[in-house]
Design goal:
Elements (H helix, E strand, L loop, with lengths): L1 H8 L12 H5 L5 E6 L13 H12 L3 E7 L2 H10 L6 E4 L4 H11 L4 H9 L7
Parallel strand pairs: 1-2, 2-3
């Protein structure tokens, strides 16, 4: 999974979070690369993005520990985040959530050349989560 392995090779620690463990992140002050995997549903006005989630993300962004943002899947979620993030926070959006999309998003966010991405990818090996 490029979304895990590429940031890890660049010094980020993995922390998997869901709605039940989000408060743990709010109590942590480590610099964070926030990656969100969510599917949108245009027929449900909020695309599955409820007020509790919005409040939690708002609190996290307010702490200024988020150093980059990648959103996979839903442009509806992107719309909300673009009103919340600072202008200097780098972010990437991808409709796809598959490994190739993850690699491309990380390449763009971390400004990796194709050669650098290829070198990192060769060092990844198999990762099971």
């Amino acid at each position: 999974m490029p979304t895990v392995t590429i940031p890890n090779l660049l010094g980020y620690d993995l922390q998997l979070v869901d709605q039940n463990t989000f408060n743990n992140v709010l109590e942590d002050n480590r610099e964070t690369l926030l990656q969100i995997f969510i599917r949108g549903n245009p027929f449900r006005g909020n695309a599955g993005f409820n007020e509790t989630a919005k409040n939690s993300y708002h609190e996290l962004l307010k702490k200024s520990i988020v150093k980059g943002l990648i959103i996979y899947g839903s442009p509806y979620i992107l719309d909300w985040f673009t009103t919340e993030i600072s202008l200097d926070l780098p972010w990437v959006f991808s409709y796809g959530q598959m490994a190739e999309s993850q690699g491309m998003a990380c390449q763009k966010l971390f400004n990796l050349s194709t050669a650098e991405l290829r070198e990192i990818s060769q060092n990844l090996g198999d990762v099971f989560i």
